[in-house]
Amino acid sequence: MAKTKKEIKIAIAGVGNCASSLVQGIYYYKDIKDDDELVPGLMHNVVGDYKVSDIKIVAAFDVDKRKVGKDVSKAIFEKPNCTKVFCKDVPKTGVIVKMGPILDGVADHMKNYPEEQTFTPDKKKAVDVVAELKKSGADVLVSYMPVGSQKATEFYAQAALDAGVAFINCMPVFICSDEKWEKKFRDKGVPCIGDDIKSQVGATITHRVLSHLFAQRGVVIDKSYQLNFGGNTDFLNMLSRDRLKSKKLSKTEAVESELGKRLSYDNLHIGPSDWVPFLKDNKVCFIRIEGRKFGDVPVELELRLSVEDSPNSAGCVIDAIRLLKIALDRGIGGTLLSPSAYFMKHPYKQFTDEKAREMIEEFIAGKRER
């Protein structure tokens, strides 16, 4: 077993709202001392031997001219980022955001919107990402590519493999849940977690828990929908419906896995619905479930959930980073099954959230390999 290093060095691909919340969170929780302390907002104060304060940013990549060339501490607050600022005093990191490859990371329709709401690609030449990862000494690469960025996500996944860096795929391009990609990571001895991050308490996890409750209580679900609205660049990007195929599949399968029986496409609708600029990083979700209980008597549930989208994501990523470092310490490669099932919408293998949580605790304690 490799000797444990206390520090976890991370690289970030995509310095958007989710990255902003993650970086803010690293400093917001930096002074938590008590290993047993229940900390509001954290699922785990300590994961193995690692606290949030052990995470250090060593590299970052983006394509927006307002972020490239700036220290991460400044870049995370640049437009079009619009998430809530809960830790404004992020110190200078000494890490300059480098130009990454654009590939399919910027949808064509984005250029039709005001600069403060959309991406403004830099004209600089992309750096050698693999070389930068190696030079930085990164342990983990967190990928925050926009939805529909198949080529860009695959690029960063391959870069992580080539640099020998663990990989978190927060977006719905199927890497860690794909057999060919998973084999690449396993053969290289590099761990990964993916695909498509769940929120800490968001639309998908809420829909899953309610669907599981119905099924466990003997209620047959006949119809259900989940409608999501938001005002950040993620929702603006997803106005292009041709970028949504994997996103819709990921969210749908996450809920379907909790149903007693699979529903037809007409009876289960899950997916992003519209972009409402004034909502900024706030996401509003409407869930409806129609079912039949004892005696085939109808039961209906309707729910409205309003959440700040990006801190919701960071609450899960902060644990995933530390779980990957444990895997690196133990010399484990390939997809980590338990963290992927708990933190991701489209994991390599689906488990109930309760079971996945148990599996994570077993993994941390060394009672489960993956």
Please tell me the overall pLDDT.
Answer: 93
CATH topology description of the largest domain: Rossmann fold
Ends distance: 15 Å
What radius of gyration results from the CA coordinates? 20 Å
Q: Structural class given helices, strands, pairing?
A: alpha/beta
Query: Beta-strand level of the residues, as a percent range?
Result: 15-25%
Report the CATH architecture of the largest domain: 3-Layer(aba) Sandwich
Number of domains: 2
Write the layout of secondary structure elements.
Layout lengths: L7 E6 L3 H12 L17 E2 L2 E2 L3 E8 L9 H4 L22 E2 L29 H8 L3 E4 L6 H14 L2 E4 L9 H10 L2 E3 L9 H14 L3 E11 L2 H5 L7 H12 L11 E8 L6 E11 L5 E11 H22 L3 E2 L1 H7 L9 H12 L6
Parallel strand pairs: 1-4, 1-6, 4-5, 6-7, 7-8, 8-13, 9-10
Antiparallel strand pairs: 2-3, 9-11, 11-12
